[in-house]
Design goal:
This protein has about 280 residues and is of the alpha+beta class. It folds into 3 domains: about 55 residues, no CATH class; about 90 residues, 2-Layer Sandwich (GMP Synthetase, Chain A, domain 3), CATH 3.30.300.20; about 110 residues, R3H-like domain (Ribosomal Protein S8, Chain: A, domain 1). It is about 35% helix and about 20% strand. It has 7 helices and 9 strands. Strands 1-3-2 form a 3-stranded antiparallel sheet. Strands 4-5-6 form a 3-stranded mixed sheet. It has a 3-stranded antiparallel sheet with strand order 7-9-8. A hairpin with a 7-residue loop joins strand 2 and strand 3. The N and C termini lie far apart (about 50 Å).
């Protein structure tokens, strides 16, 4: 059986824990956290993070699906024609419901319309199969539901597919990561580059830091390599453009030196890589 314990290192215990929770898509309540080392002047903090023990559910190894989730720039959902929203809702719902039936997964599918989106929920004892590794399967299903639901419509209605409230849990993990790495950007006066994320995850990072007067966020890259950079501001509010010297493809050190997200054999074996540390050589005070 695969070992679900992962070790994470960072300059602080909090940073290492945040990385582990983000990587595994867990909240602190769902994870067993063991502090292996609190770090020091010449040593990073190390923690072990693993899901809390619970009833086993089968996991399926599936071929990786490369999808480009929708653009971050979306039409105001409230302004859409209610009849169009109803049509998109029905088509997207029937697609997801049919897919779950074909997969033979023990889950129920429901749908509702909120002020922001059409939300399709998949709940049941085998929901983790629908979520996949770090939400990859869920994102793929959402992309297909979004495409099929909006087919033949000129306007665009946002469709969100969720399972066992995974999106909210993921958002909480991302908020902690955003706050942690904004502090690092400020501390070292250097641009911080986060790992590639889909639009939902990038939106969480942007929203979390939008009111922080010490940093600004910006998306860079294309396709699956699209990611966020956190830029510190000086006392006059000007952007500090310094980047770490040891970089990937001329940008800030990435979590995955291969430059690929979820395609390398190393990723399949170990999962998402670790964030680089920041600031270069240790400074003496």
């Amino acid at each position: 059986m695969k070992n679900n314990d992962y070790e994470y290192k960072d300059e602080t215990v909090e940073g290492a824990i945040a990385q582990g929770l983000l990587d595994l898509g867990l909240t602190e309540e769902e994870a067993d956290i063991e502090i292996l080392s609190e770090g020091g002047v010449f040593k990073k903090a190390t923690v072990k993070v693993s899901p809390k023990a619970k009833e086993e559910t089968p996991e399926e190894e599936s071929e990786e699906v490369t999808v480009e989730i929708t653009s971050e720039d979306e039409v105001d959902f409230k302004s859409l024609d209610p009849e169009l929203v109803e049509q998109v809702k029905e088509k997207a719902f029937q697609f997801v419901k049919g897919l779950i039936e074909i997969m033979g997964v023990d889950c129920e599918v429901s749908v509702k319309v909120t002020d922001e989106a059409i939300v399709i929920s998949v709940d049941g004892p085998e929901a983790r199969i629908i979520i996949g590794r770090r939400g990859d399967v869920l994102d793929a299903i959402q992309f297909l539901a979004l495409t099929i639901g909006n087919k033949e419509h000129r306007s665009f209605a946002r469709v969100t597919v969720d399972a066992e409230n995974y999106r909210a849990k993921r958002a909480e993990s991302l908020k902690r990561v955003a706050e942690n790495y904004s502090k690092k950007a400020i501390k070292y006066g250097e641009i911080v580059e986060l790992e590639p994320m889909n639009p939902f995850e990038r939106r969480v990072i942007h929203t979390t830091l939008k009111d922080d007067k010490s940093v600004v966020t910006r998306s860079e890259g294309e396709g699956r390599d699209r990611h966020i950079i956190i830029i510190p501001l000086d006392e006059e509010g000007n952007e500090i453009t310094k980047r770490q010297r040891n970089t990937r493809s001329g940008s800030y050190g990435s979590y995955n030196d291969s430059g690929n997200y979820g395609t390398s054999s190393d990723f399949r074996r170990k999962g998402a890589g670790r964030m680089k540390t920041y600031g270069g050589p240790k400074k003496r005070f």
